[in-house]
Please model this.
Amino acid sequence: EIVLTQSPGTLSLSPGERATLSCRASQSVSSIYLAWYQQKPGQAPRLLIYGASSRASGIPERFSGSESGTDFTLTISRLEPEDFAVYYCQQYGSSLITFGQGTRLEIK
Amino acid sequence: QLQLQESGPGLVKPSETLSLTCTVSGDSISSGGYYWAWIRQPPGKGLEWIGSIFSTGSTYYNSSLKSRVTISVDTSKNQFSLKLSSVSAADTSVYYCARHIWAGGSYFDFWGQGTLVTVSS
Model:
């Protein structure tokens, strides 16, 4: 089973700042099989990024994804008030789909 | 716009079978070559993929749940369903249905609002 470890667990930033969220895979993951989601309290997750770096339909340009080996990064260039939420990465590999444990992005 | 809606009992007794249905509207469940998935989230915790089904009935399950899970599809009703047997308190979760893109990638692009299922006597 491929384990995704997200860091930090909680990130405290202010609106307007840049957010960098990390997702590290325990084994090699093809970039086409890495996605990011945003979840707000009481809501279903929303797809942000698929294929490690492709924005989903309707997602603002301030959200971007990148990869370096087994490390994947979600960057929010300038935080808006509505961006404070929990973020999950997700992968498919070895016949199993798994999610990271999440990073909580909170207002400082 | 594609919409998914979960339905089913909100309370299930231990050792019994949890049954949920997802009704898809806005598109045919048979069109587009998509998979359809169930994902769950225990209160205050992270997400767990349960399994996915293609419109033809081909299924793929999380190996950790495979012995207890059955996912089926009814294309005539534009619905797919989840059955989870021998439930315990550990199965208490919000259960989501979602459209699963599984070609050229693997991700969930449309989600239902989720339904809380509590396992308790």
